[in-house]
Amino acid sequence: MTAGERTAHPTGPLLLSGGGGVTAPPPARLVVDGLTVVFGGVTALDDVSFTVEPGTVHALIGPNGAGKSTCFNALTGVYRPARGTALFGTHDLTSMPPHRIASVGVGRTFQNIALSPSETVRDNLLLGRHHLGRSGFLADALGTRRARHEERQALARIEAIAAFLGLADKLGTPLGTLAYGDQKRVEMGRALAMEPRLLLLDEPAAGMNASETESLTQSIDQIRSELGISVLLVEHDMTLVMQVSDRVTVLNFGKKIADGPPAAIQTDSTVISAYLGEPEDWTTPHPGDGPGETSSER
After folding, report:
1. Are 175 and 236 found together in one domain?
2. Which of 199, 182, 117, 194 is nearest to 158 (CA)?
3. Distances, alpha carbon 203 to alpha carbons 196, 260, 296, in Å
4. Which H or E run contains 267?
5. Of 93, 151, 102, nearest to 131 (Cα)?
6. Residue 135: in which H helix or E strand, if any?
7. What is the arrangement of strands in the sheet containing 42-52, beginning at the earlier edge strand?
8. Which residues, 6 or more positions from 297, have their beta carbon under 8 angstroms from its beta carbon?
9. Residue 61's closest CA among 237, 221, 188?
10. What is the pLDDT of residue 141?
11. Structural domain count, the chain
12. pLDDT in tens, the chain (298 residues)
């Protein structure tokens, strides 16, 4: 089955969520409408619209400076758009602070690993559970029954996530001693620990070798197919994008220039000219995709 033939996961339970037989709500549709971000007199994102259907993988691609990370930052409360909306179910993400966006089920990874190298994999994964706690600081300090229950529940979730990502034998290992590909998987696990319904992956394959990228591709596919979590993916590895995506939106100079299934994007003359090139060129990094690139440059 090709990426374009996959069907959405309609209402499947989030297998890592809930407790005592309770499942989380199904994924919601993300509808981005007319999103515009302006820095001074520069329009970084210009009237961009697209929809991420529930339980699908939707890729956001384009050359450096196209507005991809700006879009991510607008969706996660880092930037406040000048115009436009981003409705996730009934919630307009553009009017919410980052902690509220996380609480409605939106998780995010970063291109540069945002974890503590001296802490264990377990402790880094637990960072994603912080906003889910309800017992409070005093209850945690006193070790109340509720606090102990939340701790047991959090550790059980972390173990399930680690097993899902192939990290079960590394929970007690300091993050900084792991191979780079495993560190990126921990970053993804930290986002999954937030129990998202929508997962934003910012260049998850950056810096990975071919074997690590293949493993990542399988993980993204499983997040969609087994967990029913919607994924919005920014990625320069076009082989990965075309293999795993259900739909692709292409940006160039802050504007949307194409939107459709991967097969259509691959043959779109405007996209080929602006970004993709020919398929045989996809394994060669695009100009400016080197390790010195920062999120503000994309």
Report:
1. no
2. 194
3. 18, 20, 14
4. none
5. 102
6. none
7. 42-52, 30-39, 83-88, 91-92
8. 64, 65, 288
9. 237
10. 45
11. 2
12. 444 444 343 333 334 444 433 345 566 899 999 999 999 989 999 999 999 999 999 999 999 889 999 999 999 999 999 999 999 999 999 999 998 998 899 999 987 787 889 999 999 998 877 654 454 444 444 456 665 666 677 788 889 999 999 999 999 999 999 998 899 999 999 999 888 999 999 999 988 899 999 999 999 999 999 989 999 999 999 999 999 999 999 999 999 999 999 999 999 999 998 887 655 555 544 444 443 333 333 4
Q: How far apart are CA 108 and CA 73, in angstroms?
A: 10
Are residues 2 and 58 part of one domain?
yes
Whether 43 and 251 have beta carbons less than 8 Å apart is answered as: no
Task: Mark whether 141 and 268 lie in a shared domain.
Answer: no
Number of H helices, E strands in the chain: 10, 10
pTM confidence score: 0.80
| Residue 216, token pair as written in the block | 């990542």
Tokens of 142: 């006193």
**Residue ending a domain, choose from 194, 221, 248:** 194
Query: Are 1 and 74 within one domain?
Result: yes
Same domain, 2 and 98: yes
| 3 state DSSP class of 177 | helix
Amino acid at 154: A
Three-class secondary structure assignment of 213-239: HHHHHHHHHHHHHCCCCEEEEECCCHH
Three-class SS state of 193 = coil
Residues 3 and 83 in one domain: yes
Q: Which two tokens stand for residue 156?
A: 């059980």
What is the extent of the structural domain holding 51? 1-7+27-105+196-284
Q: How many residues does the chain have?
A: 298
